[in-house]
Amino acid sequence: MEESQSQSQNKTSGGRLYIVGIGPGSIEQLTIKARDVILNADYVLGNSTYLDHVADLLGTQKIIRSSMGKEVDRARKAVDLAKDANVVMVSGGDTNVYGMAGIVIEVAEHENLDVEIEVLPGVTAILAAASMLGAPVVTDFSVISLSDLLTPWEVIEKRLNLASEADFVIALYNPKSRQRKSNFARAIEIIRKYKADSVPVGLVKNALRGEGEAQIVTTLGEVMEHEDWVDMSTVILVGNAESRIWNSPRKDIIITPRGYQRKYDY
Amino acid sequence: MEESQSQSQNKTSGGRLYIVGIGPGSIEQLTIKARDVILNADYVLGNSTYLDHVADLLGTQKIIRSSMGKEVDRARKAVDLAKDANVVMVSGGDTNVYGMAGIVIEVAEHENLDVEIEVLPGVTAILAAASMLGAPVVTDFSVISLSDLLTPWEVIEKRLNLASEADFVIALYNPKSRQRKSNFARAIEIIRKYKADSVPVGLVKNALRGEGEAQIVTTLGEVMEHEDWVDMSTVILVGNAESRIWNSPRKDIIITPRGYQRKYDY
To answer: Contact B204/B132 with Cβ under 8 angstroms?
Structure first.
């Protein structure tokens, strides 16, 4: 903390807390503002994975790494430092969507922090995945995490049922982990109660991360054939009743029409 | 079209079609890749509003403006030009979320276009609005457009009912237009059947657009007092049962806890 005070007296008058979405993982998918805020920070905090994603932007800033699962400690440190310095907390994807904005602002509230807090949005993993698949999310959609670490499983099941009944395009996050092998299979089982087996499903790993990108285009009736391929870094997009697959000359693309075909001829 | 062929013979071998999300409207909210792809395009197509947002990036590219409502014509032109040139179709926010990816790829499918199609995601208006409000969307959420131009109103009502029953955080797009004055009031009425009057609601105009930004933090019970303020450019975010408002020393902030408070002490 002493370090931060001497730093701030040189560079800032009063601190500022930025919570910055860094997008899917490659620098080119950051917003220009997110890049500039990171470049000009006194401190950059984050878990090691996210700090590695922006390593090319880190030079003179003080870096505070912490490990996954230490979100509350990390948030407390960011809030403390922000009283006197320009502090950036990096968050994968967007800061809001299962990101760090929540916990950091909760800690700021707890301490009634009186500095400017600026939340910078980023490209969230769902939309990175959607862009790789083509146009699966052009109309109303729901986003559901299958992680029951922080949300009771009954609530997750209820949301899966109602979102499927409403025929939303559905994006599933956190489909699997070592502790939760069966959640993905159970989610697909629920969705199939409402949606036809012909509905397109896209599975995307490491969407726009720059390395390890992979995708599968399949259908709800056949997606369980790919169950072993699905891991914690996979985003799943399930179409609605109007979605279809275009086997284009280059790759398979999912299209969810917005409804223009009801109004126009091509 | 002849123009495009001579152009392409100089600059590219075969064309490429980019569908590019430009984010909320200021250059600094573009991704670095979106900016670079626009800078290097042979043609940039879009409606006038979006082209104005990226005016600082437009110089040597050929620009094709079209007006709102001419999406199909614009898509057809982009697909045609992409056979021989680097073509960028710009789309506000993200390309998928009520964006141009759908219609452009539908037209490409109709013509069985055999060139690389690259969809570049952007910061969507919901997440730009969420970032201005703090952390309202940290957990599962649904996104619903209240425009019944392309979706039947019965489907919209069904989605409002089911998303509210599931206690999703709900983002509403296109709340009002000259033709549809009552849709917003009706949507709030439906949501109030399921969610308590104390649930926080954020209204955001021109989120992160750089000009005209404005926001109101209120509750479901009181949001109709602001009905006249809501217009077509407003995004509405309705919290879930755990969301709360922090009257911070700087501004009112919406927090939807992810559930850390069930697991940790601060």
So the answer is: yes
Dihedral angle over CA of B29, B33, B39, B44, nearest 10: -80
pLDDT at B68: 67
Q: List the single best residue of A132, A138, A251 to mutate versus B (max B Cβ within 10 A).
A: A138
The confidence band for B264, taking pLDDT boundaries of 50, 70 and 90, is: low
The span from the CA of A119 to the CA of B127, in Å, is 10
Q: Which residues contact B189 (CB under 8 A, 6 or more apart)?
A: none
Which segments of chain A are extended strands (E)? 16-21, 43-47, 62-66, 86-91, 116-120, 134-135, 141-145, 169-173, 200-205, 214-219, 234-238, 244-247, 252-255
Chain A residues touching residue B138 (CB < 8 angstroms): 96-99, 101-102
The pTM of the whole model exceeds 0.90: yes
Q: Are A161 and A191 in contact (CB under 8 A)?
A: no
Task: Name which of A208, A90, A99 is nearest B31 in CA terms.
Answer: A208
Residues 6+ apart with CB under 8 A from B152: none
Instruction: Report CB contact under 8 Å: A258, B102.
Output: yes
CA distance A253 to A251: 6
Query: B101: which chain A residues are within 8 Å (Cβ-Cβ)?
Result: 130-131, 134-135, 138
Q: What domains does chain B contain, in order, with CATH numbers? A: 2-123 (3.40.1010.10), 126-258 (3.30.950.10)
What pLDDT does residue A4 have? 39
| A&B contacts, CB < 8 Å | 279
Contact B27 A32 (CB under 8 A): yes
